Every structure is written in structure tokens, then in C-alpha cells.
Amino acid sequence: MSLGNRGIGAQMRKVRYRNGMKLTDDTRAGINLISSHGPGEIRVGERSIRHSSIVAADELLEWSVQSITSISSADIEPILALKPEIVILGTGLEQRFPDPQIMGAILSRGIGCEVMNTGAACRTYNVLVGEDRRVVAALIVEES
């Protein structure tokens, strides 16, 4: 069987691939979604953030924490005040765990807590907020 000029080669030339992929539904007005992240910066919607921040669906707060090793009980109070069901701790360029007392203070209130590098935390936050979960991301922004 001959396919002639309109064979597989012609069909394959019609295939087009997108150059980029949209990872989040940014059409939900008023919901904070993280549109990108990188060393020294995260973008929440159109806002460029160059400092550690606490991000919830309807809140965006500056966070004074510079390193996961310096986090104190007072530093987690603004996170807990948002009454999340889960906290995502973004620890900078590498995954590092906070002092066990910090984790205990979160977990003892019946709040889930996940610790990951800030890039993974941004992606996880977007998934959970997209599922209408009460999630708060506490993100440490570090230079590379």
C-alpha cells in the first residue's frame, strides 16, 4: 500500500508542539499563585518578591527569617495566625530541617507540615491552593 505524497511524512509535518506549558490556572481572581521562582526571587502573580515571605491564598506577608537555622517560635506565629491545615516550609536553595521544637510547635496544633527546598515548596503550594486547601507557604528566599 502506497501512501504517496500525503503519507506519514506529510502527516508528521502537521504536528505542532507548544514552546511552553502553563502550570497553574491563574484565572481565579484574588488567589495568590506563585508564577515563578529562582535564586533571590519569587513571583506571586505579577509581584516580584525578593525577601522571605509567607504566602496564603488571600495573604502575602513579609517574613523576617533569613535561614531555616535561625527560625524561632516567634517567627512561626504569623504562619499559625492564618489557621492553615498544612504549612509548607521552603528552606531556600536546599532542603534543610528546622529545629525539632519548631516542627513540634506546628504539629502539636494538628497542622500538617512539609519541609522542602523553596522551589519545590512553591510548586506544592500552587497544587494545594488549587485544590482549595488551607495551605500557607513560608518561603525563605536566598541568593544563589
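(ticket continues) Second input and output from the same batch:
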Amino acid sequence: MLLFFYGLTIRRNERREWLAEWWLLAVFIYILVVNKGNQVHEYYQLPFIPAAAIIVGRAWAKLVSLADPGVVRVRRLALTVLILFGVSILILSGLRYASLLSGENDTSLTDFARQASSIIPQDEMVLDVDDGNPVTLYLLHRKGWILNCNSIASLAKIPNYVVLHRTEPHHYGCAEFSSMLQHADTLLMRGDHVLLRTKAGSLQR
């Protein structure tokens, strides 16, 4: 990011050198238009990367040009700094990638979904009490709703099967969900996930 901000300050000599800036403007407008998707999913910001890479490359080129070839010490210092930057980026990226992989190795949700899908009839709708993440419904292979305390009032009736995430009680710790918790049977608990079966007639609105 430091190289990116430095690259933005470098003077452009030709109109075509403004390509990256126009690209960034387009990305900014895109983020405003597709606002919800950009809030939920990080990969929606991928269009930012090509323009940012151009600007970072501009910064690299400027730093190299600042090193006077006639002054060997200065040039060596500049090249050393550039190499350290490059190695640091590779190491930090590798650590980030390893962290992402360790998160993907958590099978608690997939194990829960496999057992829960064997319990829930194929034609039943499911309410996933969450913040909008569609992964649970996707793994259950069921249609339904992803709602929380702020949006539960939009349902005329709570469906027969409800999934709670115990690490996120703020999504269901409200009055709208109190009757559901009091009038429901626990069918499955695995890790941080709970499958409930609501009792007929208890949650009619």
C-alpha cells in the first residue's frame, strides 16, 4: 500500500499513463453501485488489483530510476531495499495464504450440514439465522432465508427448520426469536451450529 500511495504521487507525462487512475475511478463507481456485494464478499474487490499493480509498478520504476548508476553504493542500497520489499511481500503473502488454508480445513460446518441435510426433508425450507452468508444453505442443499433480528419481521411464519450459530447470539438474542427458542426442539448440535425443529402453530404471526 505504501508503494501504491507513492505511485499515485508520481507525475504522468502522457495521457495513457492515466489509465490506472481511470480504472480506479470505475472500480469506485462499481463499489457504490454493487454496495451490498462488496460489503459481504472480499473477492468483489478483485477488479482493484490490476490498476493497483500498474501504480505499484510505476513506483518501483521510479525508485530504480532514482538510483544513480554512477554511485555504486546508492544503487546497491536501492536494489537491496527493493529486494527486501519483494521478499517481505512474498513471505507475508505466504503467511496469509497459510492462514486462509487453515480456516478452510475446519470441517465442523460441513459435518453439521451433512448430518442436518439427512434430517431435513428435501421439500422443506430452512431459516438460517445469520448475517447474510449463504454457505450454510448451500451446504444443506436447501432453499430458505438468511435472516437475523433486524429482518425476521419480514417473515409471515417461521419455517419448520431453523439453523442457529452459537458463536453469533446477537443475531437471535431479540424478542422476535424468543418464542422460537422456547417452542422448538433441538435435533442436532455440532460445533457451533444447532438445528431446531419449530413446533407447529407456535410461531404463527
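Agent notes: The two ends are 51 Å apart (CA to CA). The chain has a mean pLDDT of 86. Closing as not reproducible unless the customer responds.
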